[in-house]
Specification:
This protein has 436 residues and is mainly beta. It is built from four helices and 20 strands. It has helices spanning 65-73, 87-90, 99-102, 351-359; strands spanning 2-7, 10-19, 29-38, 50-60, 111-114, 122-134, 138-157, 184-207, 210-223, 243-244, 251-260, 265-274, 278-279, 298-299, 309-312, 315-318, 333-334, 338-350, 377-385, 427-435. It has a 15-stranded mixed sheet that branches. A hairpin with a 4-residue loop joins β11 (251-260) and β12. The longest helix is centred in the first third of the chain and has 9 residues, at 65-73.
């Protein structure tokens, strides 16, 4: 990568990164990056008050080694499972029966494989921004970020019963492509992701003791997968999988700052509030025989039978959708608002100051010893996470067959959006750090 200041008010950035892995088949993963910053009123000896910025880059994600390990471990051969029910075989314990004897009690295994065309997922990101200096040592900026992801990871049961051949509740019914009853879970890179963000930020440094930063972000993120653990509702069709991404919190507002308090203390508050994230609403039954409970209901109509109708605050649903019914989008529900206030108070002292505290020694003015030059520093800090003990509920239960549907059975703990913790809403920690 390189940075080139072609003119006093124009800076160009170029870069090229290459990603390669031995556990995927496609390694032509070149990731170029380019960015520009232009200050229209900037001069050679005087920086401008306005800056236009723009950039584009490709960013690859690694395919986790765990996928290769899982595919090797659960390949149907390296590991097998037996359920022995014959008393004559059980009676030879502690002797181990032969493999030929155990084969009669083998149970179907869930095999995991990697798709032959599995490749590294990547994001293409474009951004533009305008930054302006304001009076009272303030700076405001507004930016737009467009992100498009290709080859995003998902899983799929490629040996699920063919459509129309499975009868709900009838075990092992349906015609499977491989002819066996084994589930074959395939890791594949067939997903897409799209996100648009509008971000407004304001910075203010009133003086050396006070700094404030505030930002607001409007985001709109959609996709047809939320990661390698995402299974489609219908193995044989991804047409209805495109919907809100799990990270799609539409509004997020943060305020943070740093204040130098008396006696050398530093106070750093942080406040965040964001709208609810989406969650998936499912029927809670396996109606297509893939052994996965990912099927979603359809929107209720005037012909929906009363026994199949479920009325919720997110809409009215039919839990036994018939052919041609309009299935609800993925991640159709929306969770609860998140808000938290954190506070950190710290003080840094030197070993010399500590010695003076205990001895009562004070260097005389003008002696040349007033300035502390000790390389040994001790920082004492206390941090309160979720200071006001607000209860931030986790995503609601999305299973329409559960008596807890629509209710949250866990909390986020208040320590950060998406960070689940059962340790309580509020946490206060103390830290001692020694620098030398």
């Amino acid at each position: 990568q390189d940075q080139w200041q072609s003119r006093p008010n124009l800076t160009l950035n170029f870069g090229l990164r290459y990603e390669g892995q031995t556990n995927v088949n496609n390694n032509l993963n070149f990731a170029p990056r380019v960015a520009v910053a232009w200050s229209p009123d900037g001069k050679k000896n005087k920086p401008g008050k306005s800056v236009f910025r723009g950039g584009f880059g490709i960013f690859y994600d690694r395919v986790n080694d765990n996928l290769t390990l899982q595919a090797t471990r659960f390949n149907g051969t390296n590991q097998k499972q037996y359920v022995v029910t014959d008393p004559s075989v059980l009676g030879i314990y502690p002797n181990v029966p032969s493999v030929a004897t155990l084969d009669a009690f083998a149970v179907p295994q869930t095999v995991r494989i990697k798709a032959v065309d599995l490749r590294s997922p990547y994001l293409m990101q474009s951004a533009v921004a305008y930054e302006r200096q304001l009076p009272f040592k303030s700076t405001i900026s507004i930016g737009y970020i467009n992100t498009r992801g290709l080859h995003q990871l998902r899983s799929r049961n490629i040996n699920a019963p063919l459509p129309g051949t499975y009868f709900e509740g009838v075990r092992n019914s349906g015609i499977r492509p491989s002819g066996s009853t084994n589930n074959i879970f395939e890791y594949e890179s067939s997903g897409i992701f799209k996100q648009n963000q509008l971000i407004l930020t304001i910075d203010n440094r009133l003086n050396k003791k006070i700094f404030l930063h505030a930002s607001y972000a409007f985001s709109h993120a959609n996709g047809d997968t939320d990661g390698v653990g995402t299974f489609p509702a219908n193995t044989y069709s991804l047409a209805n999988e495109y919907g809100r991404a799990t990270i799609d919190a539409r509004h997020r507002f943060t305020v943070e700052g740093s204040f130098s308090a008396p006696w050398g203390f530093r106070v750093a508050p942080f406040f965040i509030v964001s709208s609810g994230r989406p969650f998936n609403i499912i029927i809670g039954r396996d109606i297509n025989g893939d052994t996965l409970f990912t099927e979603r209901p359809s929107f209720a109509t005037t012909t929906t039978a009363k026994a199949n109708l479920v009325v919720t605050r997110w809409g009215n649903f039919d839990v036994s959708p018939g052919p041609g019914a309009t299935i609800i989008p993925r991640n159709y529900g929306e969770g609860f608002l998140f808000a938290s206030t954190n506070l950190r108070i710290s003080k840094t002292v030197s070993v010399t100051e500590i010695r003076h505290m205990f001895t009562g020694f004070k260097p005389a003015a003008g002696s040349g010893k007033a300035k502390d030059e000790s390389p040994y520093k001790l920082t004492l800090s206390v941090q309160a996470q979720n200071l006001f003990n607000r209860t931030n509920n986790d995503l609601p239960v999305g299973n329409l067959s559960s008596p807890f549907f629509g209710q949250s059975t866990a909390t986020l703990g208040g320590y950060g959006e998406g960070n689940r913790s059962s340790a309580g809403n509020r946490r206060i920690t103390a830290q001692i750090k020694m620098e030398f």
